[in-house]
């Protein structure tokens, strides 16, 4: 396991471990004084009185907040100390929904989803449904964390999983600073083992994408420029290949919010996001075609709202009473963190949106 | 009037220089935008050159802007400092190479 310097907000018993305190912070200060417009006011100005979903395309399921890493900016506040893990019973409820829903993409996330004891069983069952794009968000180091995970690349291949993994930078220094000492070397080893069986290779159908998120209080630059730089550096230095890079903006919640406040960057960062507001990005924010399911089966507009405990505003708000038609009628719940999805070229779990 | 010559907020007002002379201001911004576009040099390489020149010009606005720009492009702190050293080396080299003038003059006047 990589050396972990930081602890989860929950472990530290930080005030920000509570979602209501995060939401309060996001509603007060510059947004209360009117120095910056609220997200609601901003989108109303672009012609969106309410944010409504379109057709459901992606079902994102969070298998638990337990993780072998404790990255400094994790929006899940994940870590080895988190005990929230999806039970097999809830997984069965999820499978029923997957079979009947119109979603073409299934996206498993965490924490480290592989740490859920029923992860492999769930993947095997879900793969039988024949979903078009089956994503597992793997943090890479988990593949090298313990012998029992060494065969994960083969397991992914067997079920034609689309692997999506975070790598904040192509240098060791920047990656380890954000994700923990030793993470870079382990991630490179894991990428090699994925490449070795065909993942990420130029003509291969075994999809391997990387996720980039900035290491500090700034936005990502152009996604395709970053992809080119990542590809060039990883190829030259390690002979590593991958398919696409998804550039994601850090949203001001959880550990990243804690960092922004502690480093006195909060107001400047929010100003940057508000100034970079792009009305075109509102059209494609991911909550409009995605639903997020938490480890205990509740439904959310997105993974971020899940972390802020903002359940969907619908009579169908749990995987047990999933009703796609009712959900398509809901109003999406928003707050100032949403500015992270509409800044610049937009941001979602699938990268830029504009 | 603010009691400091430099105010970080003024950087955001850069675009307003067109208010007093629109035609020339617009031409400048067109030119500026074109210069920083991807060309034979990548936008990333141009950003590093800009950072080095920002230091030799000692322009706080440009240092602010191109530090931020570099971070967004994934430029590392080591790369940034190396770029500043390139600027500093040229600055000091430019000063030192002029000492050949001083030496020539000394040798002429003082044998
Ligand atoms: S690997 Fe992902 S889930 Fe785990 S701590 Fe890092 S960012 Fe959070
Ligand atoms: S944070 Fe969630 S709810 Fe807000 S705009 Fe982004 S995806 Fe939608």
By CATH reckoning, the class of the domain at 44-110 in chain B would read Mainly Alpha
Helix content of chain A: 25-40%
| Tally of separate helices of chain A | 16
**Largest sheet of chain B, described in full?**
none
Mean pLDDT of chain A: 95
Measured on Cα atoms, how large is the radius of gyration of chain B?
19 Å
CATH topology of the domain at 44-110 in chain B, anyone? Answer: AhpD-like
Strand segment tally of chain A: 8
Order of helices and strands of chain B: HHHHH
Order of helices and strands of chain A, N to C?
Answer: HHHEHEHEHHEHHEHEHHHEEHHH
**CATH topology assignment of chain A:** TIM Barrel
Question: What is the alpha-carbon Rg of chain A in Å?
Answer: 19 Å
Strand order of the largest sheet of chain A: 6-5-4-3-2-1-7-8
Kindly, what is the distance between the CA atoms of the first and last residues of chain B, rounded to a whole number of angstroms? 56 Å
CATH superfamily label of the domain at 44-110 in chain B: AhpD-like
In short:
The complex is a heterodimer of chains A (354) and B (111). Chain A is of the alpha/beta class and 354 residues long.
Structure description:
The complex is a heterodimer of chains A (354) and B (111). With 354 residues, chain A is of the alpha/beta class. Chain A has a single domain (21-341), classed as Aldolase class I (TIM Barrel, Alpha-Beta Barrel), CATH 3.20.20.70. Chain A is 37% helix and 10% strand. Chain A contains 16 helices and 8 strands. Chain A has helices at residues 9-12, 19-27, 39-45, 88-100, 119-128, 141-145, 152-158, 172-179, 183-196, 223-238, 254-262, 266-275, 279-283, 303-307, 324-328, 339-342, and strands spanning 58-62, 105-109, 133-137, 162-166, 208-212, 245-247, 290-293, 299-300. An 8-stranded mixed β-sheet of chain A has the order 6-5-4-3-2-1-7-8. The longest helix of chain A is centred in the middle third of the chain and has 16 residues, at 223-238. Chain B has a domain at 44-110: AhpD-like (Up-down Bundle). In chain B, helix 2 (43-56) packs antiparallel against helix 3 and helix 2 packs across helix 4. The radius of gyration of chain B is 19 Å and the shape is extended. Chain B is 67% helix and 0% strand. Chain B is mostly helical and 111 residues long. Chain B is built from 5 helices and no strands. At the A-B interface, helix 10 of A face helix 3 of B. The structure holds iron/sulfur cluster (2 copies). One iron/sulfur cluster binds at residues 285-287, 301-302, 304-305, 332, 334, 337-338, 341 of chain A.
């Amino acid at each position: 396991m990589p050396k972990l310097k930081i602890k989860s907000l929950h472990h530290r018993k930080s005030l920000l471990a509570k979602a209501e305190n995060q939401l309060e912070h996001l509603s007060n200060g510059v947004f209360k004084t009117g120095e910056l417009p609220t997200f609601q006011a901003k989108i109303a100005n672009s012609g969106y009185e309410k944010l409504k979903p379109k057709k459901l395309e992606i079902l994102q399921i969070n298998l638990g907040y337990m993780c072998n890493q404790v990255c400094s900016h994790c929006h899940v506040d994940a870590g080895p100390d988190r005990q929230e893990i999806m039970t097999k019973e809830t997984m069965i409820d999820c499978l029923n929904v997957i079979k009947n829903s119109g979603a073409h993409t299934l996206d498993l996330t965490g924490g480290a989803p592989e740490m859920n004891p029923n992860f492999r069983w769930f993947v095997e069952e879900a793969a039988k449904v024949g979903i078009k794009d089956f994503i597992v968000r793997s943090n890479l180091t988990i593949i090298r964390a313990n012998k029992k995970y060494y065969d994960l690349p083969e397991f992914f291949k067997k079920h034609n999983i689309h692997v999506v993994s975070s790598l904040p930078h192509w240098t060791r220094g920047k990656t380890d600073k954000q994700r923990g000492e030793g993470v870079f070397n382990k991630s490179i080893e894991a990428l090699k083992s994925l490449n070795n069986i065909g993942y990420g290779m130029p003509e291969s159908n075994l999809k391997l994408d990387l996720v980039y998120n900035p290491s500090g209080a700034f936005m990502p630059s152009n996604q395709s420029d970053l992809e080119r730089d990542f590809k060039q550096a990883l190829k030259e230095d390690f002979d590593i290949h991958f398919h696409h890079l998804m550039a994601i903006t850090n949203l001001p919640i959880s550990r990243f919010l804690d960092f922004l406040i502690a480093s006195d960057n909060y107001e400047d960062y929010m100003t940057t996001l508000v100034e970079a507001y792009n009305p075109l990005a509102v059209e494609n924010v991911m909550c409009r075609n995605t639903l997020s399911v938490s480890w205990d089966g509740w439904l959310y507009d997105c993974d971020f709202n899940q972390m802020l405990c903002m359940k969907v505003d619908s009579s169908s708000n749990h995987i047990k009473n999933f009703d796609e038609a009712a959900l398509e009628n809901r109003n999406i719940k928003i707050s100032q963190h949403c500015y992270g999805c509409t800044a610049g070229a937009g941001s979602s779990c699938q990268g830029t949106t504009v | 009037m603010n009691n400091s010559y430099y105010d970080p907020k003024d950087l955001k007002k850069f675009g307003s220089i067109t208010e007093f002379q629109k035609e020339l201001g617009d031409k400048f911004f067109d030119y500026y935008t074109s210069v920083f576009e991807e060309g034979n040099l990548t936008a990333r390489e141009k950003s590093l050159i800009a950072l080095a020149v920002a230091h030799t010009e000692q322009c706080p606005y440009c240092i602010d802007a191109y530090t931020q720009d570099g971070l967004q492009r994934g430029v590392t702190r080591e790369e940034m400092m190396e770029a500043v050293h390139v600027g500093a080396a040229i600055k000091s080299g430019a000063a030192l190479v002029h000492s050949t003038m001083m030496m020539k003059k000394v040798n002429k006047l003082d044998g």
